[in-house]
Amino acid sequence: MKVALEKAEEAFQAGEVPVGAVLIESSGRDFADRNRTIETGMPTSHAELLVITAAAKDRGDWRLDGCTLYSTLEPCLMCAGLAVLSRIPRIVYGARDKRFGAFGSVTDVLEMTNLNHYPRVLGGCYEDESEKLLKKFFRKGRKKKAEKKQP
Fold this sequence. Notes:
The termini are far apart. This protein has 5 helices and 5 strands; from the N terminus they run αββααβαββα. The protein is α/β, with parallel strands linked by helices.
């Protein structure tokens, strides 16, 4: 989770929403990245999607059995769905996402019936550190908007 926080800080420095993710295989090999939506101009460039895609490509297999996904923010519906589809057995996240969170905050994909895979999900890991960085980012953004409005 500490590496995910480092990646979130990198995202903050790059002007991206500060979310970092790490996917660790049972062998110990890891894939780490940060949000890159502004950098790529793609709404799908979430940290979780990037690490899942990198791991699947490296493995040559879309099934990510034996992996754990760490994210500094509760995954959104897109990322939660991808984690379920790729069969990730364990997901750990930091801050809850009251606007888009898909593991209990807004919706809960684990309550969907008829899925063939249900990961174990643990929220609140390094929650304070994750929230602090997110709040800092959004305060900075609001301050910039207010400065632009002044004559």
